[in-house]
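Minutes, project check-in
Item: structure for the 193-residue chain
Input as provided by the requester:
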Amino acid sequence: MVISAEIAEADLRLLEDAFKDLPRQLDFIVEDAGRLIEGPMRREIMTRLNKKPTGRMARSVRTQTFGSGTALVGPTVPYAGIQNFGGIITAGSKLLAVPLSFGRVPKGKWPRDWPEGQLKLIPRKGKDSILATVSGKKKKLEPKYVLKERVKIKGVGYLEATEKAMTKEIEDFFAERIEALLLEAADRSGGST
């Protein structure tokens, strides 16, 4: 023996009308949640990266939605993953120029940015070569970069830190917005939740 439970056809039509826009509205909520995460992620990137970040990676943080209640938030620069997780960067056809901490190199300035002939290559037997400026009558060398075949990058974990800092706020945001959406849909259908 079974008991039948049915929703009246008129009530079904009311519910379908009230909720027909629900997927699109949920996408808007997810996109707004992503935008809520962008600022804290930018701050995590700026505080966790090296001592002199240029801000390029933080400025590249974007929210991308996929129309299925899903959004991804993160930097769009190609080196974002290695900065978060860490890893080894291997030189291609040219060696990697690593600014020396004592070299007083302006942030974001690379060997290609120097006027031609201003940097001198100083090979060192059994050691990494150096790029240095030459100044004065005595031709004083000021080391600026060390040239490496590979560099190990330690990940800074900005994604995990952002997630940890924002989880509660995002959960509350979703609960509040979805409740408001359901109440609005119920009002349109003439029912209550």
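Outcome recorded: The first strand starts at residue 62 and ends at 65.
No further action items on this chain.
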